[in-house]
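Review form for a predicted model. The reviewer records the input and the model, then writes brief findings.
Reviewer: anonymous (R2)
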Amino acid sequence: MRANFRMQRLFIEAPLSAGAVYEASKEQFNYLVNVLRFEAGDAVLVFNGRDGEWRAELSFPTRKRLFLTAIEQTRPQPAPCDLHYLFAPLKVGRLDYLVQKAVEMGAGLLQPVMTQHVQGRIGNLDRVRANVIEAAEQCGVLGIPEVTEPQRLEDLLADWPKDRRIIFCDEGDAGQNPLPVLSSIKERKLALLIGPEGGFSESEQDLLRSLDFVTAIPLGPRILRADTAAVAAMAVIQAAIGDWR
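Model under review:
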């Protein structure tokens, strides 16, 4: 079922069911009342990443408090997205973009990976999670991807579950077309690994190529920035062997 983009969408933490009442936070109150000028009886769509999407009506027990009452479910909760997105952090503005696009493209888990040439840092995971929620609100996404603590690439690979294949974008690959490589992958559990702006180091590339649960793919004849490569790779994977089929 398609999302209704004519109504305002709001993420909440509380459980959702018919008749459930949720008190809006100060930030939500300010946004809905002072910015959007909503009034009692108006409706928004609410979701929590677990119980589907619900139409909720606004009421004001006092001038400074706002209640949202779930009236009816508008969309059931879909199966969670299972594509894991592993990425070397970028500088702040582009990191925000990268996280938002990963949510839009169907990532089910976001894993920051510290590589030798990484230029960005994850200073605050709460900022990353806030970007995840904002992207879900704006794009009709009902599942909220998990955001995990940063890990060094070597540590991540050492403990990696062997039933989930990692696909990494190899700028040193001599080919241009990723589709033949992707079509040969039989695993259903997948992860996409995107390196830093400066690319993987030679030793990191050697390590990745030596692992039988890792597959390298090219991304065409052009040099792509890391955030562009992330969107391109996710689109190709979702179309060839992911949930777009």
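Findings: The longest strand covers residues 65-75.
Further findings: Residues 3 and 182 are 30 Å apart (CA to CA).
Recommendation: see findings above.
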